[in-house]
């Protein structure tokens, strides 16, 4: 999502500046207006101006490090240490690096009289909207240490899910890379040497061998065309992904993909329920919580519908009734939300639903990987077997002619 730098004035007349993430310039203006800021200038960060922003922070400050700093801050505040002193202690404990620099800037803003949420908001590429909103709610309610503990738990859960996905994909990706490398080596170097055996043979070659030789010739002689074609496809894809309706189409197709679509939906539902429940339990108003949750859910099919659901909530509708209109949300989640609305425990029910979908995601991932691994081995064996048969079959025919 693009990052916009802005300058403007707050409702009390004080100057304000910083960065904000939004899909478009218009969306950035709307968000600033909702935050009570009158912008006098907004410009999108270029790759050069954002070098020390989003890309650098996300590269140098990982989720585990952010979760650890959050938990340490919660522990210090829980021990009745003043906020400024707690942040100073964290900064002094950090090794030189990006996180230490971030904490140093936050400490300076606190010394100027800003609250913690306002200080973190100027480091928005690192601290998400949900993080900042929960910190603001914690400051308003006087339970900042408790809110930070919940945030640390949530960040650790997200890192655990990310680690599971990465670990699950490591073996198939390794198999794909090794298998692809073996096939390219055979087609580009081994097959051309073997073809000299058939050069003087006047007999017709088997169809499978002819197909293999054609593929080998294309790789050896037209490899640069294949690279150009791949680059053109990648360039066209990136251009198309800047158009909203293509992004929506892509995200909708991902949800409909066999096996993978069901896994993705469970992951999105778990993230939706966890974030919304966490925001509500932290005291964030439901409308603002829906806005933040919609931004946190990366799939545009969900994001668009949640935007429509927020409007219905503003008009007085119920969340369970609104979500029931979409096939994106299963009956289990809608039923739990309905119970939470009736009993006044919506945040607890959302957390329970999020945990249930996380468990389903873990189970489905385990089953998917148990099925994918033998399929990858079988596919690699078939590919190598195809090459072996295509090479040996004409050799056997030559032996028959010699006899």
Structure at a glance:
This protein is mainly α and 403 residues long. Helices cover 74% and strands 6% of the residues. The termini are far apart.
CATH H-tier superfamily of the largest domain: Type II secretion system (T2SS), domain F
Question: What is the architecture of the largest domain at the second tier of CATH?
Answer: Up-down Bundle
Count of discrete alpha- or pi-helical segments spanning 4 or more residues: 17
- State the helical fraction: over 70%
CATH topology-level fold name of the largest domain:
Receptor-associated Protein
Instruction: Kindly estimate the percentage of residues that lie in beta strands according to DSSP.
Output: 5-15%
Q: Determine the mean pLDDT.
A: 82
**Cα separation of the termini:** 70 Å
Measured on Cα atoms, how large is the radius of gyration?
28 Å
* SSE string, helices as H and strands as E: EEHEHHHHHHHHHHHHHHHH
Q: Let me know the largest β-sheet.
A: 3 strands, antiparallel
Strand order of the biggest β-sheet: 2-1-3
Estimate the global geometry from the Cα principal axes.
elongated
Q: How many domains, in number, for the residues?
A: 2
Spans with pLDDT under 50 lasting ≥5 residues? 46-59
CATH class of the largest domain: Mainly Alpha
Give the structural class.
Answer: mainly alpha
Task: Walk me through the topology.
Layout: E1 3-10, E2 15-21, H1 25-34, E3 37-44, H2 54-60, H3 63-78, H4 83-93, H5 98-111, H6 116-121, H7 129-141, H8 144-195, H9 207-221, H10 223-240, H11 244-256, H12 260-281, H13 286-296, H14 300-314, H15 319-323, H16 331-343, H17 346-402
């Amino acid at each position: 999502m693009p990052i916009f730098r802005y300058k403007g004035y707050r409702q009390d007349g004080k100057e304000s500046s910083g960065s904000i993430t939004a899909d478009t310039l218009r969306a950035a203006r709307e968000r600033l207006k909702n935050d009570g800021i009158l912008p006098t200038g907004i410009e999108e960060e270029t790759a050069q101006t954002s070098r020390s922003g989003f890309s650098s922070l996300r590269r140098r400050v990982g989720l585990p490090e952010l979760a650890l700093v959050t938990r340490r801050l919660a522990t210090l505040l829980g021990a009745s240490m003043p906020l400024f002193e707690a942040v100073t202690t964290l900064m002094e404990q950090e090794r030189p690096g990006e996180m230490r620099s971030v904490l140093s800037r936050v400490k300076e803003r606190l010394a100027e009289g800003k609250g913690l949420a306002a200080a973190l908001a100027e480091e928005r590429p690192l601290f998400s909207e949900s993080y900042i909103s929960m910190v603001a709610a914690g400051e308003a309610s006087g339970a900042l240490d408790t809110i930070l503990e919940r945030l640390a738990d949530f960040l650790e859960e997200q890192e655990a899910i990310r680690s599971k996905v990465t670990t699950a994909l490591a073996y198939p990706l390794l198999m794909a890379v090794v298998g692809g490398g073996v096939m390219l080596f055979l087609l580009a170097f081994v097959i051309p040497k073997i073809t000299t055996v058939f050069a003087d043979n006047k007999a017709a070659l088997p169809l499978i061998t002819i197909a293999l030789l054609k593929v080998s010739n294309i790789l050896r002689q037209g490899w640069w065309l294949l690279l150009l074609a791949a680059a053109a496809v990648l360039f066209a894809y990136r251009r198309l992904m800047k158009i909203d309706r293509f992004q929506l189409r892509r995200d909708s197709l991902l949800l409909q993909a066999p096996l993978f679509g069901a896994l993705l939906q469970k992951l999105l539902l778990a993230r939706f329920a966890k974030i919304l429940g966490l925001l509500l339990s932290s005291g964030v108003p439901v409308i603002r919580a829906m806005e933040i949750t919609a931004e946190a859910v990366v799939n545009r099919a969900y994001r668009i519908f949640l935007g429509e659901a927020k409007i219905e909530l503003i008009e007085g509708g119920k969340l369970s009734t609104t979500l029931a209109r979409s096939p994106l949300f299963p009956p289990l989640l809608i039923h739990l939300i309905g119970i939470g609305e009736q009993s006044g425990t919506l945040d607890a029910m959302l957390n329970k639903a999020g945990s249930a979908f996380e468990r389903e995601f873990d189970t489905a991932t385990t089953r998917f990987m148990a099925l994918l691994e033998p399929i990858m081995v079988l596919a690699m064996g078939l590919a190598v077997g195809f090459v072996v048969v295509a090479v040996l079959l004409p050799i056997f025919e030559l032996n028959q002619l010699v006899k």
